[in-house]
Write a structure and sequence with these properties.
The chain is an all-alpha fold. It contains eight helices and no strands. The longest helix has 26 residues. The radius of gyration is 16 Å and the shape is globular.
Amino acid sequence: MQITYLSYFLASIVSYLGLLLGIILIKFAPEEKKPGKKYFILLKKILFFLILVSLLFFYKVNIILTTVLLFFIIVLMLNGKINLDKSALVYFFLGIIFYLSSKILNLFIIEAVLIFLFSIPTASLILNLKKRNYYAVFVKNLWFFAPVIALYFII
């Protein structure tokens, strides 16, 4: 089954709107942001890892290469070398993954959901209620759509 133009772009918008859910979460429970920060960071790392694992699994990359690569990524995450705080760059990378997943329907559904879930803790960590930077949360991560749109029309 081929993914249509409309379903592709609607799925990208829905995946991106996980940021809105993260903002709503912190708006309703602002007192939970500080104690939940370490869990949000851990959740982001786990979800990012799952996004990579599912992509490598569905593209049937060599199992030895996949294991080595994922082990290397885990080590880098635990040592703090992979910084998921630079959300604009991470979202650009997620946009590339989103496009790559559109070639396989089951992977596309999984990746869209994982990106949506990844967006929730991302927005929860970026949002500053005192500064009311709601708009900045969305604008900062618009880099997600650059590869989503460009790769769809180019390739």
